[in-house]
Amino acid sequence: MSPIVSVQSLSKTYGNGFKALKDVSLDIERGEILALLGPNGAGKTTLISIICGMTNPSSGRVLVDGHDVVRDFRKTRGQIGLVPQELTTDMFETVFNTVSFSRGLNGKKADPERINQILKDLSLYEKRNNALRELSGGMKRRVLIAKALSHEPSILFLDEPTAGVDVALRKDMWQLVERLRAQGVTIILTTHYIEEAQGIADRIGVINRGELLLVEEKTALMRKLGKKTLAMELRSPLPGVPQDLSHWSLKLSDDGMTLLYEYDLRGGDTEIAKLLAEISSAGISLGDLSTQQTSLEDIFVSLIGEKA
């Protein structure tokens, strides 16, 4: 099956010479959740803006369901819902009218029942007749999400959707994302909350300084780049790592009561079993064992640091 979004050798250079994107290629599969991670200014929003047809690329092209986003703008834009970072709504209009207008703007017939259901899903129904200026920041963010969903898009972009919002909205947001995924909607999100990407995404993309550093299936990325640390508590302190164990690159805690061993996740259990056997042969008595795995945030920071 062909990807629902195909980004092909995409570059964007602004008039002042700033290169926001540098030869980015990316295929987004139907029904997946893709998280794009990167620091401020990495190119995430520029990439989304081009895919959504709001900014033209300097070179390369983007296909949405086989249609070029520049030549077939109306056809491709109708398939896409976008939740931007910034609040861009008429503060004196009501919630219901704002969401309904967005549906009509994308070529869909009026459907009050559907609009009301979206508002209920986002806990906005009780505020449907309120002007936007009367809402809290979190409620305004919900309205942006409702607008993006108003025309039943098959692709949903969430550009930092939970930045600066309360925990309740964040929870509602990810529950909604799961429901949309079950309906076959493809979801692309950018986020600074790496634990959210780790919890909800199927694949992770890392972008920095306009370059797409990698796109990997989440568990494969953790397996390939992640590491584990084995902490071995000792029954009595050691003055240092025994010479017989020096080839294992062990570290000893400051109090001499814990041996630490960092290993690649691909090493498997055989490596650990061999290490424990050698420790036992060295006459060292162990107490508790525990492991800690590298987080997605550790991997992200490492990748960004390497390309700095």
UniProtKB/TrEMBL annotation:
Keyword Nucleotide-binding: yes
Keywords for the protein's UniProt record, in alphabetical order: ATP-binding, Nucleotide-binding, Transport
One MF annotation (Gene Ontology) recorded for this entry: ATP binding
Short name of any one Pfam family annotated for the protein: ABC_tran
Keyword Nucleotide-binding applies: yes
All residue ranges annotated as the ABC transporter domain in the record: 5-234
Transmembrane segments: none
CDD domains xref list: ABC_DR_subfamily_A (cd03230)
Protein family per UniProt: Belongs to the ABC transporter superfamily.
Protein name as catalogued: ABC transporter ATP-binding protein
Biological source species: Peteryoungia desertarenae
